């Protein structure tokens, strides 16, 4: 049985099937996403969702969905499914689903009387082209298929409604049509591998409803434009391939293209392969061949902090050193432009955040462990040294090296850490002053760069870095360690944040720690008792004031819960690394059980990947973005660490 196969009973139960989503990407920013029963429940869902750079920096839903109707003996059976106001579903095509399999590509088997129709969906790599193959596996009489496309032509953050501005014009192309609803958008080409008849029958389908947006406190209704329908006969055993794209294609090659793309897909036949597949979905290649990692789907762009935290797990942990180097080449250009106060030529957001440079050095450190310190130094040693000099010389606009050897950041008025939610224009968690993970990363960077300097005959630089590290170590313990055995989250003058938060775990997990062994064990114990869940570390202890573990409700309510008790798998990755470093093989079975806790997620929420965050209380439901790069990365990195400890002699 396939690893990601779902049976008829689950598929036909909308309470079970609608929360489960499917995501396919083209590794160039475009994607296709819906639920497993093809009922869109988010405004971000759509069959063809692509960037339109000449309009804005958002993705845009061109083709929202495609309803297929099976016709025999004058009877029509519509396999589509849409939710309308008043909890009404139409046309209820899910009742014909016999099974769903997402092992290689999303595959749905429909049974309508004696007709068995298979639908397979894939997104062509590096092209804005969705391909769907329909195969008539069984039929006892003449069968005709009707295809009705639902068009949106809108940003993923907006809705479309019936209007007189939308163009109804269309032009015939090879086995299909092209159309464009609004100026500034690319043409949408809808073509088939088989000759067909297009019947122009323009209409608006009004009041389509998206329950996920309702849950999030947003507007949730829109109207979708249907220009008409395509009709063609199909014989038993025959396959028809449909292409939706922003460019034309010669339709005689569609079947071969589908086969070629299918052959390029690795099966998602176990937990690890699902994570590898998810890792590849974050790849983003731009036209100028710049390489990025998207922070998540469906609404995240490439963010600097996320890039450097996720990069080792998404590349090095699965043996893809070359992609690490490609992404780092683009990122290094952005870092240097930032440090030299030049306009950015890269599409990386939030590169000015004060901890980004520290995470970049951490990523380089992981690279050296993978490829060897000599190669690592030759590749990125100069960048690491330049970053350290930039910080020491006080050139960062919001990162100051104080006399006590620690880094100070101003974060009262704007969020400057990964805990970045805001309400009424101000940070929900105003972390400021000496921030615990910033300074754990700083000490680690000092020691790492000092060790590289020693190995590469730069004793003067090594001595300076070691002296700074010694001062930082002493000050770190004095500043952050409290009498209860854990670390303050931040210290701002006389103000000390006593909240028990997961950011202290980095002082234990990083290769170089300013803490003594017993201090590290004490911090880890507090994290285990108060923060650990089956889905990572909570962002706040239940014993701390303001604990709010359920990420639900309108935007403001969710903003206040975002970092006040929700659980984050990527933090769990650093927790598990800390466990292994402190207790070695004695904690292997414990860590293995923690990792297995994520395997259930492969069949929930978005199939084959990990959600952005989870509720901090049972049943620890997945929330937020359907797929989050840092979470996938850290689970992959943990699996790699487990392997290294398992095979240690």
Multimeric status of the protein: single chain
Largest sheet: 9 strands, antiparallel
Strand content: 25-35%
Assign an overall shape: elongated
Distance between the termini: 36 Å
What is the tally of helical segments?
17
> What is the average per-residue confidence, as pLDDT, rounded to a whole number?
95
Radius of gyration: 26 Å
Total beta-strand segments: 35
Uncertain segments of ≥5 residues (pLDDT<50)?
none
- With strands numbered from the N-terminus, the spatial order across the biggest sheet is 1-9-10-11-12-19-16-15-14
Q: Helix/strand/pairing class, anyone?
A: alpha+beta
Helix content: 25-40%
Structural notes for this entry:
This protein is α+β, with helices and mostly antiparallel strands and about 650 residues long. It has 17 helices and 35 strands. Helix 5 crosses helix 17 and helix 9 (about 375-390) crosses helix 10 (about 435-455).
What brief labels describe this structure?
649 residues; alpha+beta; nine-stranded antiparallel β-sheet; eight-stranded antiparallel β-sheet; 17 helices; 35 strands; 32% helix; 26% strand
Summarize the structure.
32% of the residues lie in helices and 26% in strands. The protein has 649 residues and is α+β, with helices and mostly antiparallel strands.
């Amino acid at each position: 049985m396939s690893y990601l196969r779902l049976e008829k009973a689950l598929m036909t139960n909308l309470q079970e099937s609608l929360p489960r989503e499917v995501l396919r990407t083209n590794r160039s920013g475009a994607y296709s996403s819906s639920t497993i029963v093809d009922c869109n429940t988010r405004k971000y869902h759509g069959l063809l969702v692509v960037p339109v750079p000449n309009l804005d920096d958002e993705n845009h839903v061109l083709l929202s969905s495609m309803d297929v109707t099976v016709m025999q003996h004058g009877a029509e059976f519509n396999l589509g499914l849409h939710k309308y106001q008043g909890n009404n579903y139409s046309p209820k095509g899910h009742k014909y689903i016999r099974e769903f399999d997402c092992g290689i590509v999303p595959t749905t088997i429909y049974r309508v009387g004696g007709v068995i129709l298979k639908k397979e969906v894939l997104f062509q790599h590096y092209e804005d082209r969705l391909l769907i193959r329909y195969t008539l596996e069984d039929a006892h009489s003449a069968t005709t298929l009707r295809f009705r496309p639902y068009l949106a032509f809108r940003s993923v953050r907006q809705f479309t409604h019936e209007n007189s501005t939308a163009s109804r014009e269309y032009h015939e192309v090879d086995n299909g049509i092209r159309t464009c609803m609004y100026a500034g958008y690319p043409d949408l080409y809808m073509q088939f591998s088989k000759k067909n008849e297009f019947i122009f029958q323009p209409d608006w389908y009004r009041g389509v409803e998206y329950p996920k947006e309702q849950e999030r406190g947003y507007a949730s209704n829109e109207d979708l434009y249907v220009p008409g329908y395509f009709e063609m006969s199909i014989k038993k055993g025959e396959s028809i391939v449909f292409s939706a794209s922003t460019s034309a294609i010669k339709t005689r090659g569609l079947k071969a293209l589908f086969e070629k793309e299918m052959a390029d897909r690795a099966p998602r036949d176990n937990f690890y392969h699902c994570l590898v597949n998810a890792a590849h979905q974050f790849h983003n290649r731009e036209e100028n061949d710049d390489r990025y990692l998207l922070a998540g789907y469906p609404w995240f762009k490439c963010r600097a902090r996320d890039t450097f935290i996720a990069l080792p797990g998404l590349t090095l942990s699965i043996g893809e050193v070359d992609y690490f180097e490609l992404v780092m080449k683009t990122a290094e250009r952005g870092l240097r432009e930032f440090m030299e106060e030049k306009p950015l030529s890269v599409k990386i957001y939030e590169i000015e955040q004060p901890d980004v440079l520290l995470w970049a050095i951490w990523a380089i450190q992981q690279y050296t462990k993978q490829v060897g310190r000599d190669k690592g130094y030759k590749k990125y040693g100069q960048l690491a040294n330049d970053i350290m000099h930039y910080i020491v010389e006080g050139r960062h606009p919001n990162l100051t090296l104080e006399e006590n050897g620690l880094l100070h950041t101003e974060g009262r008025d704007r969020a400057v850490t990964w805990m970045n939610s805001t309400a009424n224009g101000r940070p929900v968690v105003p972390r400021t002053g000496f921030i615990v993970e910033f300074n754990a990363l700083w000490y680690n960077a000092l020691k790492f760069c000092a060790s590289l300097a020693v190995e590469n005959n730069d004793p003067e630089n090594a001595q300076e870095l070691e002296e700074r590290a010694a001062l930082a170590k002493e000050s770190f313990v004095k500043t952050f360690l409290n009498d209860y055995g854990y670390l303050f989250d931040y210290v701002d003058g006389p103000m000390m944040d006593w909240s028990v938060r997961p950011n202290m775990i980095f002082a234990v997990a990083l290769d170089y720690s300013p803490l003594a062994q017993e201090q590290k064990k004490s911090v880890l114990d507090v994290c285990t008792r108060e923060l650990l869940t089956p889905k990572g570390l909570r962002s706040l202890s239940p014993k701390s004031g303001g604990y709010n573990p359920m990420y639900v409700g309108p935007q403001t309510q969710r903003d206040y819960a975002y970092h006040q008790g929700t659980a984050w798998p990527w933090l769990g990755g650093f927790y598990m690394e800390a466990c292994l470093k402190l207790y070695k093989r004695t904690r292997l079975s414990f860590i293995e059980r923690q990792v297995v806790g994520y395997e259930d997620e492969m069949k929930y929420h978005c199939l084959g990947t990990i959600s952005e965050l989870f509720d901090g209380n049972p049943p620890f439901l997945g929330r937020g973005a359907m797929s989050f790069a840092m979470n996938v990365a850290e689970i992959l990195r943990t699996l790699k660490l487990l392997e290294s400890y398992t095979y240690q002699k």
